[in-house]
Amino acid sequence: MMKSIPYGRQFISDEDIDAVVKTLKSDFLTQGPRVIEFEQAFAQYVGSKYAVAVSNGTAALHLGAMALNVKNGQKVITTPITFSATANCVKYCGGDVVFADINPETYLLDIEQVQDLLDSSDKGTYQGIIPVSFTGYPVDLQAFRKLADEHNLWLMEDACHAPGAWFTDSSGHQQNVGNGAFADLSIFSFHPVKHIASGEGGMITTNNKQLYEQLLRLRTHGITKEPELLLENHGGWYYELQELGYNYRITDIQASLGNSQLKRADEGLKRRIEIAKRYDDAFRSLNIVKQKRSETEQNAFHLYVVEVSDRKGLYDYLKKNGIYAQVHYIPLHKMPYYRQEESLKTDLPNAEGYYERCLSIPMYPSLLDEEVNFVIEKVLNYLN
């Protein structure tokens, strides 16, 4: 039997190692030139004006919620099918999370469900929306922007699964995930199983200069040394703590790895799309439900999810054969922490039905053709 196959895995090249070693031999290990290089290269990659690199995706979400002024008692809408950090960032700031159901075809936050929540509530009840480009499927941010503007809400996209994804707007223009055209902020993660790995790391992109400058302060304790922002100036050593922030800085070591990986991001995305097509073709005749596909969108395929009636049986069978599938995600409104809130004791049938059937099978660029064939063979063997 071949070696075990996880659902996701990083790939570290010789170029990646050389980039890190070069940084280790340099004068900077923490906040140095590699961080700035990474920010500028990533902003160019997604098409945004600004990018702020931070210690991880959760830190990016937290700082985003802070910059958007989430406060005690204010409500933010998001999806239950996401990693916990998407909702937790609101709680970190004292806000209240409200979950809306997903679209059963795309698995994304259902804009009609969000519309119903907003229309049935008093004006000012909600502050913002956090849609998630889950699996790499791009959210239609133009539609969400229109809805947010109608209700005077901010919009923060959790794009941790979706660097390189895009959707087509109503004018026929390609809109890259994270380009800042519609979302106030977009959040990315560089965890090892993501498209770009830096060990840990995250990025916030925006076209809003004021938010950008605030995020720079918030990631470094709320401190600034920028002369034009100082209330006083005692000399070259002087700095000011202007607001309460955190130490959410990324290191030059991580940034050098991330920047090296970014250089081959398109190559990795191309391979993910190839693997997804192989899966699509192999499973076409089976009774498997898959996420919606569209020629007007490019899915970044962080995950490849199938829905099957006997999810646990398939999971156990694959594991027995060395294939380590995963479930993304257990609905957040069913988690003990969120379930203790009376307002969140609600039924979200699409999310709950999806969870009963979903399974993420291996998807990463270094997955070999023979490994893809092995996964397909075992899925077919079990389901047939």
Strand-helix topology:
Elements: E1 5-6, H1 14-24, H2 33-46, E2 50-54, H3 57-67, E3 75-78, H4 85-92, E4 96-99, H5 111-119, E5 126-130, H6 141-150, E6 154-158, E7 166-168, E8 174-176, E9 185-189, E10 202-206, H7 209-218, E11 223-224, E12 240-241, H8 252-262, H9 265-283, E13 289-290, E14 297-298, E15 304-307, H10 311-320, E16 323-324, H11 336-339, H12 349-357, E17 358-361, H13 369-383
Parallel strand pairs: 1-16, 3-4, 3-5, 5-6, 6-9
Antiparallel strand pairs: 2-10, 7-8, 7-14, 9-10, 11-12, 13-15, 15-17
Helix pairs in contact: 1-8, 2-8, 3-4, 3-7, 9-13
What would your notes on this structure say?
With 384 residues, the chain is of the alpha/beta class. The chain has 2 domains: 5-263, Aspartate Aminotransferase, domain 2 (3-Layer(aba) Sandwich); 266-383, Alpha-Beta Complex (Aspartate Aminotransferase, domain 1), CATH 3.90.1150.10. It is built from 13 helices and 17 strands. The chain has helices spanning 14-24, 33-46, 57-67, 85-92, 111-119, 141-150, 209-218, 252-262, 265-283, 311-320, 336-339, 349-357, 369-383; strands at residues 5-6, 50-54, 75-78, 96-99, 126-130, 154-158, 166-168, 174-176, 185-189, 202-206, 223-224, 240-241, 289-290, 297-298, 304-307, 323-324, 358-361. The protein has a 7-stranded mixed β-sheet, with helices on both faces. A 3-stranded antiparallel β-sheet has the order 8-7-14, with no helix packed on it. A 3-stranded antiparallel β-sheet has the order 13-15-17. The two termini are 21 Å apart.
